[in-house]
Amino acid sequence: MKFHKEYSLAFIAELINCPFVGDPNFPVLGLNEIHVVTPGDIVFVDHPKYYDKALQSAATVVLINKEVPCPEGKALLVSEDPFRDFNVLTQYFKPFVPSGSAISATSKIGVNTIIQPNVFIGNNVVVGDNCLIHSNVAIYDHTVIGDNVIIHAGTVLGADAFYYKKRATGFDQLISGGRVVIEDNVGIGALCTIDKGVTGDTTIGEGTKIDNQVHVGHDTVIGKRCLIASQTGIAGCVIIEDEVTLWGQVGTTSGITIGTKAVVMGQTGVTKSVVGGKTYFGTPIQESREQLKQLANIKKIPEILSKLK
Q1: Ordered alpha helix ranges (H), the chain
Q2: 215 is catalytic
Q3: Domain ranges of the chain
Q4: Average pLDDT, stretch 99-113?
Q5: Which of 134, 142, 152, 218 is catalytic?
Q6: What is the SS3 assignment for 289?
């Protein structure tokens, strides 16, 4: 999430009422998670396991719950609860604004686009030309949709990320301030759910086709001309490169990459990153030929045992 203008470190520190290390006028340009930070961004970290990663990231302002040496060229915000204060900043810079109508007056709808009855289009949504949005689709605030996109009934674009911190009193949600971006010529089936990024974009690449009842988690980036079959669940922060095929009921863990032109067969659990140009099957995931050989060998066990008698 980039701010509409530059703010000072002192201003940010005052918003969350915490001490800082660095020049009071140190520039702050945005607020992002570790995997999408760029210079000028704030990143938060609240676990010693990730201190070094955050301090050495591209982010130049680190919201942290411990006094540590400040890396050269960076600044620190020292907070008792970085998770809470990151939410405070998200709410300040991108507050939720209720919509007063089914199609917000701040949305932009392209030429020859058809919006069927009972569609909800939130604030600052952009829909391109020649699109077809079927009934009961909900498009949350700030979503961007390209040209020639078809979205079938009951699909939801832009719901919150499934991102929580466990506390003694229950689970605190990390507030989502990102977007969903749907590129040109995408097809999305019925009853799909595509969550917005926490601070960045969840992106569906040009020409990708998604079947019914598919879930795409926050900050995931799906490449161009992919095919994703029904009941597939894609976790957050996944990178799916171009021309990947995911067959029905595939499930992935978060933070992995599936390489270009990979094919993942039905009901596979993608437990790790896999290279492109190969076919995969099983849980944990393996190349399909190896997995099928193993299954064939298992069937031979009774015959082998009978010969040992």
Answers
A1: 9-16, 51-55, 82-93, 288-299, 301-308
A2: no
A3: 2-93, 108-292
A4: 97
A5: 218
A6: helix
Separation CA 16–CA 31 (nearest Å): 14
Q: What is the pLDDT of residues 42-91, one digit of tens each?
A: 999 999 999 999 999 999 999 999 999 999 999 999 999 999 999 999 99
Exposure b/e, 149-177, CB count within 10 A at least 16 = b = bbbbbbbbbbbbbebeeeeeeeeeebbbb
pLDDT at 280: 96
Q: CATH second-level architecture of 2-93?
A: 3-Layer(aba) Sandwich (3.40)
| Chain center to CA of 21 | 31
- The answer to whether 56 touches 72, Cβ cutoff 8 Å, is no
Q: 170-191, pLDDT tens digit by residue?
A: 999 999 999 999 999 999 999 9
One-letter amino acid for residue 240 of the chain: I
Q: Name the CATH superfamily for 108-292.
A: Hexapeptide repeat proteins (2.160.10.10)
